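Journal club prep, notes for RB
We'll compare a predicted complex against what the paper describes. Inputs for the 3-O-alpha-D-glucopyranosyl-D-fructose case:
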Amino acid sequence: HNPRQAIERPFHHRLLDLQFLTVPQPEPLRPPAGRISGFREIRPHLESNAMTTDQRLAIFERRFAAVGEFAVNALDQLYGELPDYPRWQKAILDAVEDSLNSRPDDLCSLDEEREKRQPDWHQSHEMIGYMCYADRFAGTLEGVAGRVDYLKSLGVRYLHLLSVLRKRQGGSDGGFAIADYFQTNPEVGTMDNLERLAKTLRANRISLCLDFVYNHVSDQHGWVKKAVAGDPYYRDFFFTFPDRQMPDRFEESLGEVFPSTQPGNFTYSKDGGFWVWTTFYPFQWDLNYRNPAVFLEMLKAMLFLANKGVEIFRMDAAAFAWKALGTDCLNLPQTHMLLQAFRWLLAIAAPATVLKAEAIVGARDVAKYFGLRENRGKECQLAYHNPLMAAMWNSLATGDVSKMADMLEAISDKPSGTSWVTYVRCHDDIGWSTLQDSADAGWGATKEELHFLSDFYAGEISGSFAKGRKFQVTDDEGFHGTNGTLASLAGLESASRDQQALAISRIQLLNATTFAFNGIPLIFMGEEIGLLNDYAYASDNPSKDGRWLHRPAMPWRDMAALQDVSTPQGTILANLTSLSAARKQLPVLHTENPLRIVDTGNRHLFGFLRSAPDSQFMFLGNYSDQNQKLDAELLVRFFGDMEVVDFLTGKPVNFANNLLRPYKFFWLVTKVEESKASG
Ligand code: OTU
């Protein structure tokens, strides 16, 4: 077997492609055919606003002329058949006008700035995200403001705060069961505190991201109370059924999100005397978006929060919003239309703001949340790269990157103006089933492979370095998800002293992959200091959701010790900080620049290329625990006779001895590129 031969053919065609790569230009928006009916004068604004009514009206008209068609088209498709549609359409556009009219001046300036000069702000190579629970990170919203310097030291440019809005009392699914979208969780502060925090963050060039839990509300929300009390108007905000007949029919084609602890998708409401749709916990009532009143009220909540300074809305459980009998109620066309309606109405009222899809679905479905085909680039500007995340963990366990490479290549066509959000861990489990795909995709994982991953990360396979726990496993499946922190899953918890370096290398390999991919890397609180699993999470409540295993509070008191570079934690932090600083010096990592998967000719070596018109960048990483040989020709093919340097160490790389140590990676650039960045 000649490895050279194996890489010869695919390389040639990729190389040819690469020669013709240029940065795609944003697609021009088609002007709308005509003004839609129902347009009315903007109402007078509050006196304190410096921008006049006339100016705001002009802005509304300009934006409406540019993108109104997209919003109206989405609404037409969702609600156009309803007899009172014109009235709903007018009410929705009125809400947008009202919102623009009361938008604070500083946010209006941000809108203009981003529209005119920085439409790609969310794609910048300088963007680095951090996500945390407001209370577990810093106690309160004011506390978060007090940690801005820490965030800046990590290079953070966007902050996703969890559990900020008023949540259900008692269990709240970590804040994902909301009782009021117009109020904050009093334990972390007031709406004024939130507005002030957003300002402080903005002044430090950090964009605030909040969850927009749009699929469901908690059973303590006002709408539920009215529905239960028998108000038919609010009953219609939910999917309610007098008996099990319809729920049973729906169940035939539905999956389950929490199969072992919350089986089924419907809950009986004793107070209401009906069955109600609850995809997640029984206290999370799914909203009925077939009812335009639901869309309108949720839009008002979104616009309200945008005017408080939220710049990124994380569209929670994005895939579930629309339901239809006989389907799995995931990724339905109307769900995409809903997201497009939110997107373009927001583009008129608060264009500094973007949507991030949290669609934990398979690779070919997830890319659709950017908008593909006739809606190319017209949906969410950001989307979690869940397939990359799960595939990296798969590659780390098996030492084999081939399925990951094939999968990523299959979905590498990302629309202009969009970014992935790349991450290694988050507050949820690692869901394995999204690695499956239809049989015609050679890269789909088999059930056996998923069983293996679930066992491996629970530390049940001999030789496994991981210390995690299975999540929501049922007797028949056995592979739902895995809980655990990055450090514990990567082997730091189980490592003997002389294995620690290897565990740290795994963490760095995963970080280095996500920081160079065509997305915004997102750090989950505590992973920067290698926090281990929090086994005490269930001490107050043994039935507490298993995901709390990887949600330890920030140990500020021990911070000085954790930052000591002679410890594993200090090493992880120092290296992540360097990675972040390095990324910011490499404009080629701007997410508009294309990504191509490199066929390394070695199934243990993962490689991808990022290319800008005037520069090339190559990631190479060894996902196995063995030394790996690299074909030296590889570099010659991509970089010609230019001198190649590892940007992270500044050392020249020539692969004369052709070996990559276990988990070793490179960020390769040409010598010229390196001096440009450092100069
Ligand atoms: C999201 O999660 C949130 O991230 C979870 O924390 C919430 O529990 C859930 O929505 C309900 O609000 O639906 O589209 O396996 O990965 O529930 C993906 C658990 C989701 C999560 C899944 C997920």
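Talking point for the session: Confidence is low (pLDDT under 50) at residues 1-48.
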